[in-house]
Structure formats: structure tokens, C-alpha cells
Amino acid sequence: MTPHEQVTALERALHRVYDRAHRNATAQNRRAIETLARELEGATPERLQYLRWNAARTRGLADRLAEEISRATDTATRMISGEALNLFHGGYQDAALNFNRQLRGMGLQTNVNLMNRNTLNAIFNGEHSALARLPGFQEAFRLLSHPMVFDRDRARWYYNRAADRLGNDAELVRRLQNALGEAIALGEGVAKITRRIHSIVNETEHRARRIARTETLRALNQGRYLAGEQAAREYGLRLTKTWRATADDRTRDKHEDADGQAADFEKPFIVGGEELMYPLDPNGSAANTVNCRCTMTVRVKR
Q1: Which of 80, 155, 276, 281, CA to CA, is 20 to 30 A from 214?
Q2: How many CB atoms lie within 10 A of CB 138?
Q3: How confident is the model at residue 267 (pLDDT cuts 50, 70, 90)?
Q4: Which of 178, 56, 188, 124 is nearest to 132 (CA)?
Q5: Rounded to whole angstroms, how far apart are CA atoms 104 and 73?
Q6: Cross-strand pairs, 270
């Protein structure tokens, strides 16, 4: 399975997670939604206005809905982070194997060591400093607004600050409260209230899928970058890198223009007027990195 196929599979899995969250959230709160809809039916404008501004009335329902959606987001975070780890490892191994093939073709016996899983685990748990040298590495794995670390023995996810998670949950509750408030103001029935909830779940899923595309392919390119960095430093190899864009109508014009651009490994690509050490370099602007599907290849200079 190619990296892009892995990302597509991840996106489909995320859709299933959020679809299940929507069904669970509405099923578990069906009675409360129906009770609210009955109270709205035939209510006077004055009564609707009172209900809308009675925050306590919608807060409990919004909290319960948000709890189910937040669980889906926690699951999505684990899935995205796990796939990011896999693609990082795959990117590193792919680059290292490619170096070794090229070196053999040049009649050289030097082999670039492949990173084993124990080393990778240590890196992702902060026990190794190699990744700290990557430009903006700490920002690269800021998934769903939370920096994560991965433990291969069991999935453990740490948010950088408890306030981050509380803030996100509070934002989700606020959006649900606003949606319920608008439903109350319009005197909507069960079907329309449920559609409003579904719309918020869809927005959350869309964000998760966007982050999945961005962060997993960023991890792939960072794995290749680290392999190249280590090969250059430890074996004295002179390397060149080439930007590879995805050939379809979804690719940014500036990235299509960059396709095939070659640079010395230690120098940046120039893409859209920005200097990027690799595709999805977190030091680049969001306009130049979010949803980017570009990759790079690294070769030994002859």
C-alpha cells in the first residue's frame, strides 16, 4: 500500500468513527431532543426568545453531545498519530534502503543503518535527540491542536496542557449551544435539530481528515529527511533531493510548478516564494503546507 493509499484508508476510518459518534450522540439524547422539539412546537415568539437565552436549558444537552463527539476526537487523534508514526518509520526505511541500493550500484560497501522499532519508540517518547534538530519538529506532531507522543507497547496519548483539551471541549460545547439556540429561535423540530448536530460532527470530521492528510504525509517526509541527515552526517554522503508533486487537479499550482525541482540536501526548496526543507515543512505557511500531498526523494550524488 502506498503512503497516499494509507492516508485514504485512514480518512475512511475517521469517517466511520465520526459517523458512529453522530449516531450514538443523537440516539443517547433522543428523548431530550424530542422533549425540546415538543416544547418549541407552537411556542410564542416570546417563549422562544426566553428558551433561547435560558443557557442552562441547552448547556446540559450540549455537554452530553460534546462528550460523545470528544470521544470520537480522542479516537481520531490516536489513529492519526499511529499512522504518522508508521509513515515516519516507512519514510526513514525507504530512504535508507534507497541509499544502500545506490551505494551498491556505485561499488561501495557502506550501508546506512536502518532505524529499528526500539529506536523509533525512544525518539517518539523523548529519549532520543535526533528529531529535535529537525526544523519545527515539535510543531509537526501537533495533532488536533495537541502535541502527542506514541508508545508502541500501548497507545498513550498526552496533551501538552490540560487547558488545551478543556479549551477544545469548551469550543465544541459553545458551537453546540449556538446551534441549539438557533434551533430554538426558529422553533425547529427533531429532524432539523438532528441535522444541526450532524453538521457540527461533519465539521469536526473534516478538520480531523485535513489534519490526517497533513500530519501523516509530513511525518513521511520527515522520516526521509532524518534518514538523509544521518546519512550525510555519519557517512559523509553528499545528497540531492527532488520535490515530487501529485499529478492531479487538486495540486496547488505552485506545487505543480515545483515538481521535479532539485536542491542540495542541506539547502531548501523554493516553493511559492518560501524556503521549505521538505514538503509540509512546518516552518512554511499554512497556505503552502495544509492538505499538501507532495513528497520528496533523496539520492546520493555521484
Answers
A1: 155
A2: 12
A3: very high
A4: 124
A5: 46
A6: 275
Residue 269 and residue 284 in contact, taking contact as beta carbons nearer than 8 Å: no
The grid cell for 32 is 431530550
Q: Residue 216 burial by CB count (10 A; 0-12/13-18/19+): exposed, middle or buried? A: buried
Q: What is the pTM of this model?
A: 0.78
Q: What is the CA radius of gyration of the chain?
A: 24
Q: In what order do the strands lie in the sheet with 262-264?
A: 262-264, 239-244, 295-300
For 91, the enclosing helix (H) or strand (E) is helix 55-105
Kindly report the number of other CB atoms within 10 A of residue 218's CB atom: 26
pLDDT digit string (tens) for 251-262? 999 999 999 999
SS3 label, residue 278: coil
- Give the cell for residue 57: 436549558
DSSP H or E stretch at residue 270:
strand 269-271
Residue 152 C-alpha cell reads as: 508502541
Phi and psi for 238 in degrees, rounded to 5? -95, 125
Rounded to 5°, the CA angle 17-23-24 comes to 85
Which of helix, strand or coil describes residue 297? strand
**Residue 142 CB coordination number (10 Å):** 16
Q: pLDDT tens digits for 57-68?
A: 677 888 888 888
